Amino acid sequence: MSFLYPRLLAGQAAPLFEEYKALPVSELTARFAVSHDSAVYVATGGDRVSPDRLRELRKAVLELAEHAGFPHPPDRSGKADFDLRVAALLHDEMGMVPAEAASRDVWSFLALVLLPDVAFWRYPRPPGDRVLGTDLTRHVFGRLWWRAQLVRSPDEAEPYGALHILGEAAFDQIYARREALGGSPHLVRSILRVWNDLDRRGLNERDTLRDFLKRLLRLAPFVLFDGIEEASLDAELRYVAQESVDAQRPRTVPATPAVSASPASPAEVVREAGTGASPASSGDEGERAKRRLTSVEICAGSGAQALGLERAGFDPVLLIDAKADACFTIARNRPHWEVVCMDLLEFHTEMRPEVKGVDLLSGGLPRVKSTAGISTSQDADERRVLRASVALACSMRPRAVLLENLPGLVQSPDFAADRAWIQHSLEEAGYRTDWRVLNAADFGVPQNRSSGFLVALQEPLFSRFSWPEPSGSRPPTVGQALGDSMASGGWTGAAAWARAANSIAPALVGGSENRGGADLGPTGSKKAWAALGVNGDSLGDAPPGPDFPEDATPKLTVCQAAMIQSIPEGWAFHGRKTSTYRQIGHAMPPPLAEAVGRALAQALRT
């Protein structure tokens, strides 16, 4: 029998989340309930879960939390043990079918009504997606149910035993490839069986798993994994896994008469890859200029900034973002890049020792507001990310730091206190800092988009750095950038529209997760778009067709929004229209990232 669970809709969940963020766990315990006045059920598909069953579920989860130290803050091992036990419990006891478990509103009810104390104990001061269910791969309870759904083997003595094979970071690697790999329980269970039996002695398990999954990803377009019976699938995956093991085994470098060879460090291998350079030739200026540099990208979004930095010579060792759709976008376009989908506040350098000492730490951070005239809670999450980013720079010790945010953070007196603590923190870590506002239009982007930048380098690198100069050429107008696209559907008014759209675009506004659907921004931005002949009230699904009136104002499509950002046509986005537009609107135009990246690369290579 399947059960239907109460659903707490977004309009009721959001204010409850804001209220509960400020409450201690003891107060939240007093707030738990088995019903809510605003909760709803779907009309059909099972029996409504009873209040008594909800009480039993709460009691069972609470017992596991108490085993991990509740209400006192859990340590890392306590969190891991709690997650494993709760994953099996929720999947086994809730009696939900996947269609019911796919509803974010069900998980909002569990986290805000039935188990608010446990939810906020497991994730103190959580971002919204940990509680509101906007991303089920990150929800405090939803992610655990789905992990159990993927690994459960009903014929085994311990149906959920495979949960212990991989940790959360490893499951994130599978989630990041969900479209091709992680959506098939049959395939995931085979991956776990093969991985569990693999001889991984002497290997970096994270790198080996990443290589294994990438090899499977290359097979995915040609193999119907779900159509292969279990034993044959295990045999096929065992062969692929062994290839990964062999590739990861240390290889002996034969000595030459002239040089006594020794194994290169991982950083040396990355930096010399593709250059043809050897340590003996490192003094050659031409070879040095070709050397690829390493980076870590935080708040990576859709990868547009990392794409620009890639063009400038940086290869990311790791990219981190909290939004699943953004992570899937990066993985779709750069399968060889390693993406971790997690909250930056939960990341620390010890999780990934290879990030220490990379050439560059970069990130386009969530927009902070001036402390003048706002309550401290209005941008608390954004400010926590800002502080975490600076702290990460100090612990990682990259050779250079590049952080992007609003121009006001660089120029406005209202942000003077922020600039002061950021500069002090980085100077204490041995860096010198510089701030600059750059406009993407000065680097060929058809958009009046200014960004504030912070660059930090240690000496003597800092003295070698110079900000990029404008390209000197006029950026294309909106009509020039979008004319062909507007005509592609057969609209007869496209040519006249393109001639009239004779200036660059206003800045695209990605919008907030707390707002509704995608549009082109506040009233002022919509007026600017209207002056260019664009209806900014919402986005279109396709370019205007032959029946569209010649003198009407078309809407932009998400593809056209990407053109305004100078994101290349082949960069594919994951997610629905609103999610895709937000990824685009929040992105740094790649040409601007490339210009700043080249300036940094020149300083780092000199």
Q: How would you describe the overall organization of this protein?
A:
The chain has 28 helices and eleven strands. The strands form three sheets. It has a seven-stranded mixed β-sheet, sandwiched between helices. Helix 4 packs across helix 9 and helix 17 packs across helix 28. About 5% of the residues have low confidence. It is of the alpha/beta class and 606 residues long. Helices cover 46% and strands 9% of the residues. The chain is globular.
Strand order of the largest sheet: 5-4-3-6-7-10-8
The residue ranges in which pLDDT falls below 50 over 5 or more consecutive positions are: 252-283
Outline type: globular
Please identify the structural class as seen in this structure: alpha/beta
Quaternary state reads single chain
Radius of gyration: 26 Å
Query: Helix count?
Result: 28
Mean pLDDT: 85
Tell me the major beta sheet. 7 strands, mixed
Number of DSSP-assigned strands: 11
- Share of helix, binned: 40-55%
Fraction in beta strands: 5-15%
Taking the alpha carbons of the first and last residues, their distance comes to 68 Å
